[in-house]
From TrEMBL:
<dbReference type="InterPro" id="IPR050214">
    <property type="entry name" value="Cys_Synth/Cystath_Beta-Synth"/>
</dbReference>
<dbReference type="GO" id="GO:0006535">
    <property type="term" value="P:cysteine biosynthetic process from serine"/>
</dbReference>
<dbReference type="InterPro" id="IPR001216">
    <property type="entry name" value="P-phosphate_BS"/>
</dbReference>
<comment type="similarity">
    <text>Belongs to the cysteine synthase/cystathionine beta-synthase family.</text>
</comment>
<dbReference type="InterPro" id="IPR001926">
    <property type="entry name" value="TrpB-like_PALP"/>
</dbReference>
<dbReference type="GO" id="GO:0004124">
    <property type="term" value="F:cysteine synthase activity"/>
</dbReference>
<dbReference type="InterPro" id="IPR036052">
    <property type="entry name" value="TrpB-like_PALP_sf"/>
</dbReference>
<keyword id="KW-0028">Amino-acid biosynthesis</keyword>
<feature type="modified residue" description="N6-(pyridoxal phosphate)lysine">
    <location>
        <position position="45"/>
    </location>
</feature>
<feature type="domain" description="Tryptophan synthase beta chain-like PALP">
    <location>
        <begin position="9"/>
        <end position="282"/>
    </location>
</feature>
<protein>
    <recommendedName>
        <fullName>Cysteine synthase</fullName>
        <ecNumber>2.5.1.47</ecNumber>
    </recommendedName>
</protein>
<feature type="binding site">
    <location>
        <position position="75"/>
    </location>
    <ligand>
        <name>pyridoxal 5'-phosphate</name>
    </ligand>
</feature>
<keyword id="KW-0808">Transferase</keyword>
<comment type="pathway">
    <text>Amino-acid biosynthesis; L-cysteine biosynthesis; L-cysteine from L-serine: step 2/2.</text>
</comment>
<dbReference type="InterPro" id="IPR005856">
    <property type="entry name" value="Cys_synth"/>
</dbReference>
<keyword id="KW-0663">Pyridoxal phosphate</keyword>
<keyword id="KW-0198">Cysteine biosynthesis</keyword>
Length: 297
């Protein structure tokens, strides 16, 4: 008998969905979070990273030995560095120089080359310029349909099955918007009444991984009709709930995940007998050097 063992790529997805026990308080609602930090490279971005490389390979758009280029603020870069290592590609990642030390170290650990620039918009511009100069091929998570497809075929069906079709609200931070676009498309096909809630930072707030994009940089994969409501989140509230998740629920995550749960707690005050799902995008260990967990309160 030949034993069949999975590869690391086979371990992406099928993440746990768990119930919050203390943060919701006395409520008739069920508040659930999907633990995307359980993916091999530690974030929800493992799904689109593998999807973008694998599907481009299947179409013949890329071949092993090609140089791949991507602009990233962090999690996508780590996930792409892992996926490129699995598939045998050289990965060049362009990112803002204010990204955390843990993120930079993780990318280089997987063998990626890093180029640091001033801003995310600058990173996107440089990636396209390098492609125009023939220095590699840009995957472009912001305009690549293989990004939301990963969530339409994976994350969305998992949530539907895990809640046995009882989900009433889905809450997700919006960065590239791939997660919310793919999950929304799937859930709305199953039940158009499911409410899709997106999260963006308040003006002046800096929450890693989510953005208020200038109109000219709005991701091309984004379709506003797929989002029923957008909540503005302050950095302070997102960080407070992030710390509470660790201390009161044992869920160690990043700031954008804290924001998603903060939005879910707000929504829970408005409805009864709802089944809400928020995405926990990543793990908290890649934020420790920022001091965001140092607050004693």
């Amino acid at each position: 008998m030949t034993l069949q063992f999975p590869t690391i790529a086979d371990c992406i997805g099928n993440t746990p969905l768990v119930r919050l026990q203390r943060l919701p308080g006395n409520t008739s609602n069920t508040l659930l979070v999907k633990l995307e930090g359980n993916n091999p490279a530690g974030s929800v971005k493992d799904r689109p990273a593998l999807s973008m490389i694998s599907r481009a390979e299947q179409r013949g758009d890329i071949q092993p030995g090609d140089v791949l280029i991507e602009a990233t603020s962090g999690n996508t870069g780590i996930a792409l560095a892992m996926a490129a290592a699995i598939k045998g590609y050289q990965m060049v990642l362009i990112m803002p120089d204010n990204s955390t030390a843990e993120r930079k170290a993780a990318m280089t650990a997987y063998g990626a080359e890093l180029i640091l620039v001033d801003s995310m918009e600058g990173a996107r511009d440089l990636a396209l310029q390098m492609q125009a100069d023939g220095r590699g091929k840009v995957l472009d998570q912001f305009a690549n349909g293989d990004n939301p497809v990963a969530h339409y075929t994976g994350t969305g069906p998992e949530i539907w099955q895990q809640t046995q079709g009882s989900i009433t609200h889905f809450i997700s931070s919006m960065g590239t918007t791939g997660t919310i676009m793919g999950v929304s498309r799937y859930l709305k096909e199953q039940n158009p009444a499911v409410q899709i809630v997106g999260l963006q930072p308040q003006e002046g707030s800096a929450i890693p991984g989510i953005r208020r994009w200038p109109e000219e940089y709005l991701p091309k994969i984004f379709d506003a009709t797929r989002v029923d409501r957008v909540i503005d989140m302050s950095q302070l509230e997102a960080e407070q709930v992030m710390r509470r998740l660790a201390r009161e629920e044992g869920i160690f995550c990043g700031v954008s995940s804290g924001g998603s749960v903060a939005a879910m707690l707000r929504l829970s005050q408005e409805v009864e007998n709802a089944v809400m799902v928020a995405i926990i995008c990543d793990r908290g260990d890649r934020y420790l050097s920022t001091g965001v967990y140092d607050d004693p309160q």
